[in-house]
């Protein structure tokens, strides 16, 4: 007898199916479960969409199939689940011809990209990690551009939470790294970003839009107003002012200048997170398109106006009034930049960084002033600051408390955010750099306050006659050893040595960065670890193949090693989804037991 067509496979006779109640069709395709129930024949993927256990072991009652393992329940006819955490089970066409049962062996969707886009929306809406992982995998398999997936998740996050959060920061940081990531790591990056956005939005009230003003004041006025409303914590006024600037078509650079000026009304607000979130919102729009600015950019305002500044902290007031030092320095910035204008060729980034690591705050401010007079641009100052902050991490003494890693981390990611914002602003500031460059002064004082973290300093490997000769020389062996180090606790120094070895031998920084990303993406990483890797990659790229670039990646490796390994639960979810999507039989042995 002929098959209905080549895509169909014979499951058995209808009589046999009636007698047994269910049959499983195996082959090169995924296993298919055929069920006879109350006069009708149904065919489904035999792998439970939850964790892949065989549904043939399940029970059928009243048109409902219940999986034997975690008791997820499915509508037999449609495959749709009653238990959202388990996901829907795919069904396939089944035909009875001349007493035989034939099933179509190919599962599919008429428009896979649209199907998986909807599933991603469902997974985000209900915070379903497994559904999110499958939907990301499905979209990538359907050749949906990575940036499109980032856009879907980012807009969901902006609309379904009253303010920018950790999830959107992680999503943006990982999205920035996507161009450097191989396929597997790109899948994991998008999965982690999406699941963290979903978790942030779970149970939250959606955001309520506000409208721009009907007038179009000039950029300088909008900048002044934004500072004023931030200073008095007037969120609605600040949001409407920002929306007015966006509606007026102000460039990202001018908007960045206004927001950085407003943000630095407070000193090192919320230990730097507030400024970092602002920078990430800008980077998010670079990735998903600036036409989404009205939806995304105002999400940072709530935290910005509510943030607590370090000026309220004793540590910044005694024994030295660091806030007064910053204010005094900031008041001179317009004149200093005017004096330095026209001076070309300032390139003392590394020497300035060393001065920023000094232990006299007045001298640190003086060093910054001298650099400006000598021609340093705002982004030169922030680059030095970011490198100095990376050195703080690279030399972090192992005798510190574990939580002190976060203290070092905060200054580094803050400095990176200031650097990215100042690079974006360039020369776009309509009234000079005075306000925005306060971020550098605040960052320099935050760095000064963390000087105890380097007492005594950890040695940077590969320097001062340290040859690293006990380590392998082959690039792949070094990277394998690095991953092995991340499998064990407290391998901070070994990880640093392996990174130093890799780079001093001239092996590819990109391959090393991909390995660091792999090490991070397999962990249940904290928010800071994602920030650390992304900021480190950006800052090391600015220095290229130099000792400074190497120091920054050593800092990243040391931080990641201090926070590895974790339980890797999210990786297990991603792995189940990946194998399920590839059609693998996940639990054959369990099925045959
Ligand atoms: S409910 Fe089926 S494997 Fe968990």
Describe this structure in words.
By secondary structure, the protein is mainly α. It is 55% helix and 7% strand. Helix 2 (112-126) runs parallel beside helix 4 (146-159), helix 6 packs across helix 21 and helix 21 packs antiparallel against helix 22. It has helices at residues 14-20, 112-126, 129-141, 146-159, 166-177, 183-201, 219-231, 235-247, 252-263, 273-288, 293-296, 301-306, 322-340, 349-356, 361-373, 378-394, 404-425, 438-449, 475-486, 492-504, 509-521, 527-543, 547-562, 569-581, 588-592; strands at 8-13, 22-25, 32-37, 40-45, 59-61, 64-66, 73-75, 94-97, 100-104. The strands form three sheets. It has a three-stranded antiparallel β-sheet. The protein contains 25 helices and nine strands. The structure holds FE2/S2 (inorganic) cluster.
Helix count equals 25
Report strand order across the widest sheet.
1-9-8
Shape: globular
- What is the residue-averaged pLDDT? 95
Radius of gyration: 28 Å
Beta-strand content bin: 5-15%
Number of strands: 9
Structural class: mainly alpha
Write the layout of secondary structure elements.
Elements: E1 8-13, H1 14-20, E2 22-25, E3 32-37, E4 40-45, E5 59-61, E6 64-66, E7 73-75, E8 94-97, E9 100-104, H2 112-126, H3 129-141, H4 146-159, H5 166-177, H6 183-201, H7 219-231, H8 235-247, H9 252-263, H10 273-288, H11 293-296, H12 301-306, H13 322-340, H14 349-356, H15 361-373, H16 378-394, H17 404-425, H18 438-449, H19 475-486, H20 492-504, H21 509-521, H22 527-543, H23 547-562, H24 569-581, H25 588-592
Antiparallel strand pairs: 1-9, 2-3, 3-4, 5-6, 6-7, 8-9
Helix pairs in contact: 2-3, 2-4, 2-6, 3-6, 3-24, 4-5, 4-6, 5-6, 5-10, 5-22, 6-21, 7-8, 7-9, 9-10, 9-17, 10-17, 13-15, 13-18, 14-16, 15-18, 16-17, 16-18, 16-23, 17-18, 17-22, 19-20, 19-21, 20-23, 21-22, 21-23, 22-23
The protein binds FE2/S2 (inorganic) cluster.
């Amino acid at each position: 007898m002929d098959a209905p067509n080549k895509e169909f496979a014979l499951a058995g006779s209808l009589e046999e199916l009636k007698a047994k109640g269910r049959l499983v069709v195996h082959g090169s395709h995924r296993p298919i479960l055929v069920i006879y129930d109350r006069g009708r024949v149904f065919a489904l993927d035999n792998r439970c969409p939850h964790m892949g256990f065989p549904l043939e072991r399940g029970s059928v009652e009243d048109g409902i199939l219940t999986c034997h393992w975690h008791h997820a329940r499915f509508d037999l006819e449609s495959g749709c689940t009653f238990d959202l955490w388990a996901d829907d089970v795919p069904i396939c066409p089944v035909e009875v011809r001349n007493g035989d049962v034939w099933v179509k062996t190919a599962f599919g969707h008429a428009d896979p990209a649209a199907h998986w886009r909807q599933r991603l929306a469902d997974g985000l809406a209900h915070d379903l990690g497994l559904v999110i992982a499958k939907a990301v995998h499905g979209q990538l398999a359907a050749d949906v551009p990575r940036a499109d997936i980032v856009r879907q998740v980012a807009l969901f996050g902006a609309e379904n939470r009253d303010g920018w959060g950790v999830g959107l920061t992680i999503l943006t940081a990982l999205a920035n790294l996507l161009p450097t990531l191989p396929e597997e790591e790109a899948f994991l990056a998008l999965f982690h970003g999406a699941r963290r956005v979903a978790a942030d939005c779970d149970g939250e009230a959606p955001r309520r839009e506000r409208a721009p003003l009907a007038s179009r004041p000039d950029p300088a006025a909008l900048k002044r107003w934004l500072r004023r409303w931030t200073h008095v914590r007037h969120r609605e006024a600040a949001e409407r002012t920002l929306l007015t600037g966006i509606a007026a078509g102000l460039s990202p650079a001018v908007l960045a200048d206004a927001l950085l000026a407003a943000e630095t009304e407070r000193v090192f607000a919320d230990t730097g997170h507030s400024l970092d979130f602002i920078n990430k919102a800008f980077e998010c729009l670079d990735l998903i398109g600036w036409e989404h600015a009205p939806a995304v950019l105002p999400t940072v305002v709530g935290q910005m106006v509510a943030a607590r500044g370090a000026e309220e902290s004793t540590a910044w007031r005694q024994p030295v009034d660091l806030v007064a030092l910053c204010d005094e320095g900031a008041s001179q910035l317009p004149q200093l930049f005017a004096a330095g204008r026209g001076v070309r060729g300032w390139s003392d980034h590394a020497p300035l960084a060393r001065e920023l690591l000094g232990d006299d705050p007045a001298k640190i401010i003086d060093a910054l002033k001298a650099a400006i007079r000598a021609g340093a641009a705002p982004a030169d100052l922030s680059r030095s600051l970011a490198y100095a902050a990376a050195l703080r991490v690279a030399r972090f003494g192992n005798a510190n408390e574990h939580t002190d890693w976060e203290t070092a981390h905060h200054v580094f990611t803050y400095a990176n955010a200031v650097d990215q914002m100042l690079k974006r602003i360039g020369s776009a500031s309509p009234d000079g750099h005075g306000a925005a460059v306060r971020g550098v002064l605040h960052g320099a004082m935050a760095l000064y306050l963390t000087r105890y973290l380097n007492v005594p300093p950890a040695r940077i490997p590969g320097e001062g006659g340290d040859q690293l000769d006990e380590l392998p020389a082959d690039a792949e062996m070094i990277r394998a050893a690095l991953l092995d180090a991340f499998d064990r606790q407290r391998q901070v120094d070994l990880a640093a040595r392996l990174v130093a070895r890799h780079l001093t031998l001239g092996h590819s920084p990109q391959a090393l960065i991909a390995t660091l990303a792999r090490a991070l993406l397999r962990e249940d990483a904290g928010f800071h670890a994602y920030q650390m890797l992304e900021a480190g990659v950006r800052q090391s790229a600015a220095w290229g193949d130099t000792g400074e670039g190497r120091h920054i990646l050593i800092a990243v490796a040391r931080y990641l090693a201090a926070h590895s390994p974790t339980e890797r639960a999210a990786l297990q979810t991603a792995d189940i989804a990946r194998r399920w999507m590839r059609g693998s039989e996940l639990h054959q042995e369990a099925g045959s037991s």
